[in-house]
Amino acid sequence: MTIKQLQHALSGEYVTSAYFTKQIKLLLLIFGLFLLYIGYGYLSQNQIKYANRLHKEVEDARNEEAVLHCRYEEYSRMSNVYEVLRQNGRNLKISTQPPVKL
Predict the structure, then answer these.
(1) Which of 77, 82, 102 is nearest to 93 (CA)?
(2) Within 13 Å, how many C-alpha atoms sit on residue 11's CB side?
(3) pTM (2 decimals)?
(4) CA distance linking residue 91 with residue 15, whole number of Å
């Protein structure tokens, strides 16, 4: 780039040229679309982060549910219920006779 071309570019004469003024609407449209594209990129990035966070929360909730279900199964076993009742002073005995249907 020569010094004369550099002076022409820095002086602002290019912006006032006839070619540039004819194309100003097109350039504004391109600039607007470019801003929309950038905005959409940020929006989609935030939505992906939110979806990943929700996915992690769902997975954590499923793991917690599985742990609680295992604990419930363990505590609801007949032998564990009998042991807890015996420790609390209730002397219940397990029936050796099958239930009778009325």
Answers:
(1) 82
(2) 10
(3) 0.55
(4) 98
